[in-house]
Design a protein that fits this description.
Number of strands: 14
Helix content: 40-55%
Order of helices and strands: HEHHEHEHEEHEHEHEEHHHEEHEEEH
Number of domains: 2
CATH class of the largest domain: Alpha Beta
Radius of gyration: 21 Å
Strand content: 5-15%
Strand order of the largest sheet: 2-9-8-7-6-3-4-5
Bound molecules: 4'-deoxy-4'-aminopyridoxal-5'-phosphate
Number of helices: 13
CATH superfamily of the largest domain: Type I PLP-dependent aspartate aminotransferase-like (Major domain)
Structural class: alpha/beta
CATH topology of the largest domain: Aspartate Aminotransferase, domain 2
Distance between the termini: 32 Å
Shape: globular
């Protein structure tokens, strides 16, 4: 429905998210559906009993339902610093702002750095909500190809040459990328930082899945490689490692941005949800995260392997797919004969949901690809879902 109200010009640029909308679309379906669409942790991976235990004993009094400090609850900040100690995201208190999920971190970065018409590069495919946020701040987007080693730095250079100007912001999901599942190699990370430095660009380092590695060797985060250089603005979230409904994350940015981040956040939501902050602080203080992550990594590896086995059974010779070493997603590329947007309704009717590739590209570059989330579905259902997908394609 269109409105007759006098909207701001930027309202036209609010493109929304096919991914997020799939939650309500799927909630309206009454038949059995294998859900490879949303990037949610497995229902059984949400540590709700532990969170309940913290809730019963750890929230304190009614003060837990008051406003919190905008930069975040001190207990949570302290527990987070400790949690990051010894990881590639090790940091200091003066760099942290607690946010309402990773999405708010992306919005804060866009709000601080993007003027209308600024060039922002995004990966191709990219995490749509990130590109949509940049668009909402009236950025001009350039899509940069991703291959098995992550964002192509040659393609980035070529895009900047074509544009005739340097990007204000370079948006990347460097590790177990959403949606492709691929990771940027160390060589490319280093090269990216060198280029960004020479251009005076900010690198928006969105890395929600880095702690969910289940194969291969660790690669240092862009945050670590930058070694305190203010050019890297890192966005992190508790959504994938604890639970998305908490809506909690953090920004790790140069201390010179702290006041601006607080000012910007105060005009969004004053503070992140305090009961949720107390829950996560208690969860971390009790040391629950380590075991929780170990269990999740093992299970996600099994699920990825199950999905690859099912894909090999049904699609060998008809499609190719990526082989992620962590995270939630893999990316399937079919030949020209499969239109994944057109296939979606048939697949949904057949009882399987995914996200079509075009949802991950402002220029709609992926009509024959799709994203599958292997993390939220048990292995037997993964086999069933891929079989249903094959059936839906064969009906076409
Ligand atoms: N960035 C990426 C790459 C993501 O995959 C997600 C969640 N799907 C987010 C940011 C947003 O995180 P949150 O749900 O914590 O807002």
């Amino acid at each position: 429905m269109t409105t007759s109200l006098p909207l701001a010009a930027r309202a036209d640029l609010l493109v929304g998210s096919v991914i997020d909308s799939s939650t309500s679309l799927l909630a309206q379906q009454s038949h059995d559906i294998v859900r490879f669409a949303m990037g949610s942790p497995a229902a059984e991976a949400i540590p709700w009993e532990l969170l309940q235990e913290v809730g019963r004993s750890g929230l304190g009094s009614s003060s837990a339902f008051d406003y919190a400090a905008t930069e975040g609850e001190p207990d949570l900040r302290a527990a987070l610093l400790e949690m990051l100690e010894g990881t590639t995201d090790r940091t200091t208190d003066d760099r942290l702002t607690i946010t309402s999920g990773g999405m708010q971190g992306l919005d804060l970065a866009a709000k601080l750095f993007i003027d209308p018409g600024d060039l922002v590069t995004v990966e191709s495919p990219t995490y749509t909500n990130g590109s949509a946020t940049a668009l909402a701040y009236q950025a001009e987007l350039a899509e940069i190809e991703v291959d098995a080693e992550g964002m192509s730095i040659d393609a980035l250079r070529a895009a900047v040459d074509r544009a005739g100007r340097t990007p204000k912001l370079i948006y990347t999901v460097p590790t177990f990328q959403n949606p492709s599942g691929t990771s940027m190699s160390l060589a490319r990370r280093t090269e990216l930082l060198e280029l960004a430095r020479s251009w005076g660009s900010v690198v928006l380092d969105d890395d929600p899945y880095g702690m969910l590695r289940f194969a291969g060797a660790d690669v240092p985060s862009l945050h670590e490689l930058a070694d305190g250089d203010p050019l890297v603005f890192s966005v992190r979230t508790f959504s994938k490692i604890i639970a998305p409904g908490l809506r909690l994350g953090w920004v790790d940015a140069d201390p010179s941005l702290q006041t601006l981040l607080i000012n910007a956040k105060q005009s969004m939501d004053t503070c992140a949800n305090l009961p949720a902050q107390r829950l996560v602080a208690g969860f971390l203080q009790r040391g629950y995260l380590k075991d929780h992550l170990a269990t999740q990594r093992t299970e996600y590896r099994r699920r990825k392997e199950a999905m690859q086995a099912a894909l090999a059974e049904h699609f060998t010779g008809r499609a190719t797919w990526t082989d992620p070493e962590g995270g939630f997603f893999l990316w399937v590329s079919f030949g020209d004969e499969v239109d994944t947007e057109e296939l979606f309704a048939r697949a949904l009717a057949a009882g399987v949901a995914y996200i079509p590739g075009n949802a991950f590209s402002p220029g709609r570059r992926f009509p024959h690809d799709l994203r599958l989330c292997f993390a939220s579905t048990p292995t037997d259902r993964i086999h069933e879902g891929v079989a249903r997908l094959a059936g839906a394609i064969d009906q076409g």
